[in-house]
Request: fold
Amino acid sequence: MLSRLRSLLITALVAWHTGVVHAQSPCPPAATPLTAEELHGATRDRGFLWRVTRDGRSSYLYGTLHVAKRAWAAPGPQVRQALQASDVVALELDMLDPDIRRRIGERLTVTHGAALAPALIARLNALADANCVSAAALGALRPEVQVVTLTALAGRRDGIDPAYGIDLMLAGIGRGAGKPVFSLETPESQAAMLMTDDATQMGRIVERALRDLESGKARSLVLRLADVWAESRLDELYHYARWCQCLDTQEARAFHARLLDRRNPELAERLETLHASGHRVFGAVGALHMVGDTALTQLLARRGFRIERIVPP
Reply:
């Protein structure tokens, strides 16, 4: 099982880095698969884990981080125990599924719709070069996806890399253990949430993201959110809207709602359906889906689940 898991994790790392990230000095080192000792030797739980029980059967809900340090990637003892006690793993998207990756690629590289002004393209290229990203590969993506990619890579020099993202790790562990891995969403629904063909709106989205990247604000936010997750500081996560300094305009709040709040009812429904079908589910989604009035924990509680927090205790 270990060799199979390692090959799956190699696939995940290649999927993230091929054609986009440079590994040459003085760039950050390329991500590499975890060793057997790293995979099974984690002694500390990170993130946020709940047991959700209904119909005499327990499933689990885990708040993840899509970018992480190598030392955080392997699950700790209580998360491992929850994985072992579950029949299936459910993620936002299973990035080890070739069909999912193909469909994502088709959506993210669509060229129709609004085009960026040359000045914004020049700024994107400059940031790509500064962050060891292939400008040519980045330019093949839609503009909204380019700034999301650069934001996800903003912490690489600090050791925080999408290739060590917790969801990728869980997909590999689930498959390595022979458990079915489900996608709770579709590439098409995620792409529709992220992208727009309105030239004015696209320009504003890209301009704001570029300002945050150029000023270092994006990197600071990535580092703080990563630290909150790694230390399981749940109260601080709950107050994300107060300290992120990212919801100061109506448009930013609307985008945040589209990115998180509006997706949660469907995520809760899919998790409930899997549980009701007789499965013990290990559901793992981004930790920010556990925040606010539409937090997944609250939505599942309203659907009759008993919610027990495991991490932090």
Remarks:
- The chain has 16 helices and six strands.
- Residues 1-18 have pLDDT under 50 and may be disordered.
- Residues 38 and 189 are 35 Å apart (CA to CA).
- The longest helix spans residues 199-215.
